[in-house]
Amino acid sequence: MTQHADADTRRAQVASALVTVVAERGLARTTLADVARTAEVSVGLVQRYFRTKDELLKFGIEHVYRRTEERVAAIPVEPPIRDLVVRLMETSLPLTPGRHAEARVWLGFVQASLTDPEMAAVHRAATGRLIDGVRRALEGARHAGEITAGVDAAAEAAALVAFADGLCLHHAATGDGFDASRIAAALRTYVDRLFAP
After folding, report:
1. Cα–Cα dist 181/122, whole Å
2. How far apart are CA 78 and CA 58, in angstroms?
3. CATH of 53-194, one of 1.10.10.10, 3.90.226.10, 1.10.357.10, 1.10.940.10
4. Is omega for the bond preceding 76 within 30 degrees of 0, making it cis?
Protein backbone atom coordinates (compact mmCIF):
# COMPACT_ATOMS: atom_id res chain seq x y z
CA MET A 1 0.00 0.00 0.00
CA THR A 2 1.35 3.42 -0.90
CA GLN A 3 2.02 6.02 1.77
CA HIS A 4 -0.79 8.19 0.32
CA ALA A 5 -3.26 5.29 0.38
CA ASP A 6 -2.21 4.45 3.93
CA ALA A 7 -2.77 8.07 5.00
CA ASP A 8 -6.24 8.03 3.41
CA THR A 9 -7.03 4.75 5.17
CA ARG A 10 -5.87 6.13 8.52
CA ARG A 11 -7.89 9.32 8.07
CA ALA A 12 -10.99 7.27 7.24
CA GLN A 13 -10.34 5.06 10.29
CA VAL A 14 -10.09 8.13 12.50
CA ALA A 15 -13.23 9.65 10.93
CA SER A 16 -15.17 6.46 11.57
CA ALA A 17 -14.02 6.50 15.20
CA LEU A 18 -15.05 10.13 15.45
CA VAL A 19 -18.58 9.27 14.30
CA THR A 20 -18.79 6.57 16.96
CA VAL A 21 -17.52 8.81 19.76
CA VAL A 22 -19.61 11.87 18.87
CA ALA A 23 -22.74 9.72 18.56
CA GLU A 24 -22.11 8.37 22.07
CA ARG A 25 -20.68 11.40 23.89
CA GLY A 26 -21.78 14.44 21.91
CA LEU A 27 -19.64 16.98 20.13
CA ALA A 28 -18.62 19.08 23.14
CA ARG A 29 -17.45 16.09 25.22
CA THR A 30 -15.48 14.42 22.43
CA THR A 31 -11.69 14.60 22.80
CA LEU A 32 -8.81 13.62 20.53
CA ALA A 33 -7.91 10.98 23.13
CA ASP A 34 -11.41 9.46 22.91
CA VAL A 35 -11.17 9.28 19.14
CA ALA A 36 -7.67 7.79 19.23
CA ARG A 37 -8.74 5.14 21.74
CA THR A 38 -11.78 4.18 19.65
CA ALA A 39 -9.69 4.06 16.46
CA GLU A 40 -7.08 2.00 18.35
CA VAL A 41 -4.30 4.40 17.39
CA SER A 42 -2.15 6.85 19.33
CA VAL A 43 -3.14 10.45 19.98
CA GLY A 44 0.06 11.37 18.12
CA LEU A 45 -1.17 9.59 15.00
CA VAL A 46 -4.49 11.46 15.15
CA GLN A 47 -2.60 14.74 15.54
CA ARG A 48 -0.40 13.88 12.56
CA TYR A 49 -3.46 14.16 10.32
CA PHE A 50 -5.52 16.66 12.34
CA ARG A 51 -3.61 19.40 14.18
CA THR A 52 -6.66 20.57 16.13
CA LYS A 53 -9.98 19.21 17.31
CA ASP A 54 -11.73 21.64 14.93
CA GLU A 55 -9.85 20.17 11.94
CA LEU A 56 -10.86 16.69 13.05
CA LEU A 57 -14.49 17.70 13.49
CA LYS A 58 -14.64 19.38 10.08
CA PHE A 59 -13.19 16.27 8.47
CA GLY A 60 -15.72 14.17 10.40
CA ILE A 61 -18.76 15.97 9.02
CA GLU A 62 -17.27 15.89 5.53
CA HIS A 63 -16.87 12.13 6.05
CA VAL A 64 -20.57 11.79 7.02
CA TYR A 65 -21.69 13.82 3.99
CA ARG A 66 -19.35 11.85 1.72
CA ARG A 67 -20.81 8.53 2.93
CA THR A 68 -24.32 9.81 2.25
CA GLU A 69 -23.30 10.95 -1.24
CA GLU A 70 -21.74 7.52 -1.92
CA ARG A 71 -25.08 5.91 -1.02
CA VAL A 72 -26.83 8.36 -3.37
CA ALA A 73 -24.42 7.52 -6.20
CA ALA A 74 -25.15 3.80 -5.75
CA ILE A 75 -28.89 4.25 -6.38
CA PRO A 76 -29.88 2.99 -9.83
CA VAL A 77 -31.53 5.75 -11.87
CA GLU A 78 -34.61 4.01 -13.24
CA PRO A 79 -38.36 4.60 -13.30
CA PRO A 80 -40.61 5.09 -11.57
CA ILE A 81 -39.05 8.33 -10.38
CA ARG A 82 -41.25 8.31 -7.28
CA ASP A 83 -39.31 5.25 -6.03
CA LEU A 84 -36.02 6.94 -6.96
CA VAL A 85 -36.96 9.96 -4.84
CA VAL A 86 -37.82 7.72 -1.87
CA ARG A 87 -34.50 5.85 -2.15
CA LEU A 88 -32.63 9.15 -2.55
CA MET A 89 -34.14 10.59 0.63
CA GLU A 90 -33.67 7.36 2.58
CA THR A 91 -29.88 7.71 2.18
CA SER A 92 -29.79 10.44 4.83
CA LEU A 93 -32.36 9.00 7.24
CA PRO A 94 -31.36 7.04 10.38
CA LEU A 95 -32.80 3.73 9.19
CA THR A 96 -29.84 1.56 10.32
CA PRO A 97 -27.66 1.66 13.45
CA GLY A 98 -24.77 3.15 11.45
CA ARG A 99 -26.93 5.87 9.96
CA HIS A 100 -28.46 6.51 13.39
CA ALA A 101 -24.93 7.35 14.60
CA GLU A 102 -24.35 9.53 11.54
CA ALA A 103 -27.59 11.42 12.20
CA ARG A 104 -26.55 12.16 15.78
CA VAL A 105 -23.20 13.44 14.53
CA TRP A 106 -24.91 15.51 11.84
CA LEU A 107 -27.12 17.18 14.44
CA GLY A 108 -24.08 18.11 16.51
CA PHE A 109 -22.39 19.60 13.48
CA VAL A 110 -25.49 21.53 12.47
CA GLN A 111 -25.44 23.14 15.89
CA ALA A 112 -21.73 23.92 15.52
CA SER A 113 -22.38 25.46 12.10
CA LEU A 114 -24.46 28.19 13.74
CA THR A 115 -21.30 29.80 15.09
CA ASP A 116 -18.51 28.34 12.93
CA PRO A 117 -18.32 29.77 9.37
CA GLU A 118 -16.25 26.83 8.04
CA MET A 119 -18.70 24.26 9.39
CA ALA A 120 -21.58 26.34 8.04
CA ALA A 121 -19.98 26.38 4.58
CA VAL A 122 -19.58 22.58 4.60
CA HIS A 123 -23.20 22.15 5.69
CA ARG A 124 -24.56 24.62 3.11
CA ALA A 125 -22.61 23.00 0.27
CA ALA A 126 -23.73 19.45 1.14
CA THR A 127 -27.35 20.51 1.64
CA GLY A 128 -27.26 22.42 -1.64
CA ARG A 129 -26.04 19.33 -3.50
CA LEU A 130 -28.82 17.21 -1.99
CA ILE A 131 -31.52 19.76 -2.81
CA ASP A 132 -30.19 20.07 -6.36
CA GLY A 133 -30.27 16.28 -6.82
CA VAL A 134 -33.86 16.09 -5.57
CA ARG A 135 -34.84 19.04 -7.77
CA ARG A 136 -33.44 17.29 -10.85
CA ALA A 137 -35.31 14.10 -9.94
CA LEU A 138 -38.56 16.03 -9.53
CA GLU A 139 -38.03 17.81 -12.85
CA GLY A 140 -37.56 14.38 -14.43
CA ALA A 141 -40.78 13.21 -12.77
CA ARG A 142 -42.59 16.27 -14.13
CA HIS A 143 -41.33 15.54 -17.67
CA ALA A 144 -42.34 11.89 -17.30
CA GLY A 145 -45.83 12.89 -16.15
CA GLU A 146 -45.43 11.37 -12.66
CA ILE A 147 -46.16 14.74 -11.04
CA THR A 148 -48.26 17.59 -12.37
CA ALA A 149 -46.76 20.26 -14.61
CA GLY A 150 -47.49 22.99 -12.07
CA VAL A 151 -45.24 21.54 -9.37
CA ASP A 152 -42.33 23.88 -8.48
CA ALA A 153 -39.48 21.35 -8.42
CA ALA A 154 -37.01 23.68 -6.67
CA ALA A 155 -39.43 24.61 -3.88
CA GLU A 156 -40.60 21.02 -3.40
CA ALA A 157 -37.01 19.74 -3.31
CA ALA A 158 -36.10 22.20 -0.56
CA ALA A 159 -39.26 21.30 1.38
CA LEU A 160 -38.62 17.56 1.08
CA VAL A 161 -35.03 17.92 2.32
CA ALA A 162 -36.27 20.04 5.24
CA PHE A 163 -38.89 17.38 6.01
CA ALA A 164 -36.21 14.66 6.05
CA ASP A 165 -34.03 16.82 8.31
CA GLY A 166 -37.00 17.13 10.67
CA LEU A 167 -37.42 13.36 10.73
CA CYS A 168 -33.76 13.03 11.73
CA LEU A 169 -34.20 15.59 14.49
CA HIS A 170 -37.31 13.94 15.93
CA HIS A 171 -35.68 10.51 15.76
CA ALA A 172 -32.68 11.77 17.74
CA ALA A 173 -34.82 13.65 20.25
CA THR A 174 -37.53 11.04 20.84
CA GLY A 175 -35.79 7.73 20.15
CA ASP A 176 -38.37 4.97 19.97
CA GLY A 177 -41.13 7.53 19.54
CA PHE A 178 -39.87 8.05 16.00
CA ASP A 179 -38.18 4.76 15.14
CA ALA A 180 -36.88 3.72 11.71
CA SER A 181 -40.16 2.15 10.56
CA ARG A 182 -42.15 5.29 11.42
CA ILE A 183 -39.59 7.49 9.69
CA ALA A 184 -39.71 5.37 6.55
CA ALA A 185 -43.51 5.40 6.58
CA ALA A 186 -43.62 9.19 7.06
CA LEU A 187 -41.26 9.69 4.12
CA ARG A 188 -43.37 7.47 1.85
CA THR A 189 -46.55 9.33 2.89
CA TYR A 190 -44.93 12.68 2.10
CA VAL A 191 -43.69 11.51 -1.30
CA ASP A 192 -47.05 9.88 -2.12
CA ARG A 193 -48.78 13.25 -1.57
CA LEU A 194 -46.22 14.98 -3.78
CA PHE A 195 -46.73 12.43 -6.54
CA ALA A 196 -50.51 12.26 -6.16
CA PRO A 197 -52.35 12.96 -9.45
Report:
1. 30
2. 34
3. 1.10.357.10
4. no
Amino acid present at 187: L
Segments in the chain forming alpha helices (H): 3-25, 32-39, 43-49, 53-73, 81-90, 97-113, 117-144, 153-174, 180-194
pTM of the model: 0.85
**Cα(193)–Cα(92) distance, integer angstroms:** 20
Classified as helix, coil or strand, 81 is: helix
Tens-level pLDDT at each residue, the chain (197 residues): 344 448 778 888 888 898 899 888 888 888 889 999 999 999 998 888 888 888 888 888 888 888 888 998 899 888 899 999 999 999 989 998 888 888 888 888 888 889 989 889 999 999 999 999 999 999 999 999 999 888 999 999 999 999 999 999 988 888 767 889 999 999 999 999 999 87
Sequence ranges of the domains in the chain: 53-194
